[in-house]
Design goal:
Keywords: ATP-binding, Nodulation, Nucleotide-binding, Transport. The chain is of the alpha/beta class and 287 residues long. The chain has ten helices and ten strands. The protein has a single domain, classed as Rossmann fold, CATH 3.40.50. The strands form two sheets. It has a six-stranded mixed beta sheet, sandwiched between helices. Strand 7, helix 6 and strand 8 (191-196) form a beta-alpha-beta unit. It is globular. 39% of the residues are buried. The structure holds adenosine-5'-triphosphate (ATP).
Length: 287
Amino acid sequence: MCSVVVENLAKHYEDLRRGRIVALEGLSFVARPGEVFGLLGPNGAGKTTTLRILATLLRPTSGRAVVNGYDCLTQPDEVRRSIGFMSVNTAVYDRMTAWEMVEYFGLLYGLPRDVLRARMEELFNRLRMWEIRDVLGAKMSTGMKQKVSVARALIHDPPVLIFDEPTAGLDVLVARALLKTIAELRDQGKCVIFSTHIMREAEKLCDRIAILYRGKILAAGTLPELREEYREHDLEELFFRLITQVELENGQPTVAHQESRREPCDRNTVGTEHDTHTGSPALNRPT
Ligand SMILES: Nc1ncnc2c1ncn2[C@@H]1O[C@H](COP(=O)(O)OP(=O)(O)OP(=O)(O)O)[C@@H](O)[C@H]1O
């Protein structure tokens, strides 16, 4: 049984300045219960677009996405009840405490009071949130906010969890704790879709990885399968080889070329921003 089925998904944006942007082109994959499915790609690859379509926040231009048996276009309410979505932009309200925020979302999902109370206590225990129970959003550190966002995504105990670069901006300790929580959720049978541009995260956490670049999946499989297929042990080398090949085919300056003009970069990231989690600079955004 598959928790998430993506078939031939395409998404075009009409951008006033840049014209038509093809963000996704013929994307297909499936993800099952009890696995972390990783979307690994640099900035602009189409990760957020994919996850926002799965979360019913965006309509695809064509193709189909099914979550927990529900079609994202025609059954959006059922899809929303089936997922927990968390990204670095998930809002934490300044004037609510941690407890109030999680409770608020539980009520929005229609949980009865007694069920909600039990669920909140379980989550506050699991995520070690009791010490921030009465802290206002405005007074929270990034790590505290992240915990609230995770609790908010889990409050209705959904079978599918979608994490869009959840460790962005977190220090290494908070990021590790979050990855551990995600692994535990997977072990409990949740289907987790996880996007990242950090190689080490993908290697450590993901049961299967899809390498996404310019809206297309260049390769997908378990890490051992990818290593075997491309005869390359190092995920970063494998990643660069795939991307360089696409750029050569498109007649564009290769990523490797751009890289050679930069400072040596950390071997664990591909992206634009300075990554606070690994402290590593990364590559230029593809244009
Ligand atoms: N609302 C929008 N209007 C126009 N173009 C967009 C819009 N949202 C995304 N894009 C473009 O679509 C492409 C894919 O973007 P997307 O945000 O999905 O990638 P990503 O892999 O999540 O990257 P990042 O790591 O930077 O978030 C990029 O070229 C981006 O500029």
